[in-house]
Design brief:
Low-confidence stretches: none
Mean pLDDT: 93
Order of helices and strands: EHEHEEEHEHEEHEHEHHHH
Helix content: 40-55%
Strand order of the largest sheet: 1-6-5-2-4
Number of strands: 10
Largest sheet: 5 strands, parallel
Number of helices: 10
Distance between the termini: 27 Å
């Protein structure tokens, strides 16, 4: 039986931080347009040009010829690769989020205020976990955040809940994560508040919060 991974298993692995596979989207443009976007954390590639230096999950429209063909070629080249079972259609039908293509920054840069530690922690997790690889969140003083966004052609992000809607990541566990963390409610909000109080608002606290967000998001899917 050809090697495959189910949508729910891939979603769980996507949220498990450093062990995430390389998600290679080889959907044809017309199929991507019909779906309205792509799988979070995936990167685009033509099926003839697809390469991967890591464990790869290959995604096409329905999980048939393109994804299995690319995965087989990557394995023949000595790589580790599987196809997404049922493709992006099965992903959508499982109720998993579709990342809006038009919402992505062309430069891969995003900017937020460094002064709201709760918001920046969730926004950094969102950029690192759910947006395409290579993106970066710049947390800067609030007084200059708009100017930095303009100078660096970065997308300005001010609110985690609004950002989820902006990117099409409208899914109950993600919305609950953003709501609790940024409003300081529930165990998640309490833990994040403790981190920010102990470490201060900034990238150190943001990075320390990421595994907590991972566990919350995965646990909410159970």
């Amino acid at each position: 039986m050809p090697a495959e991974i189910s949508p729910l298993t891939l979603w769980t692995r996507l949220l498990l931080g450093p062990n995430r596979p390389d998600i290679v989207d080889v959907c044809l443009p017309e199929d991507s347009n019909a779906i309205g976007g792509r799988i979070p954390a995936s990167r685009r590639s033509g099926h003839r040009q697809a390469q991967s230096g890591a464990e790869a999950v290959v995604v096409c429209h329905k999980g048939l010829k393109l994804s299995h063909g690319v995965a087989a070629r990557l394995r023949a080249d000595g790589g580790v690769a599987v196809a997404l079972e049922g493709g992006i259609v099965a992903w959508r039908d499982a109720g998993l989020p579709i990342l809006h293509e038009t919402a992505l920054s062309e430069t891969g840069l995003y900017v937020c205020s460094a002064e709201d530690g709760r918001q920046s922690a969730v926004l950094r997790w969102l950029v690192d976990r759910l947006l395409p690889p290579g993106g970066a969140l710049m947390a800067v003083p609030g007084a200059i955040v708009a100017d930095v966004a303009d100078r660096f052609d970065a997308t300005l992000l001010t609110d985690a809940e609004a950002a989820l809607d902006h990117f099409g990541l409208v899914m109950a566990p993600l919305q609950e994560l953003a709501r609790e963390a940024t409003r300081g409610t529930g165990p998640l909000g309490t833990m994040l508040g403790g981190l920010v109080d102990a470490l201060g608002a900034g990238e150190i606290a943001d990075r320390a919060a990421a595994p907590i967000f991972d566990a919350f998001a995965v646990g909410s899917m159970q």
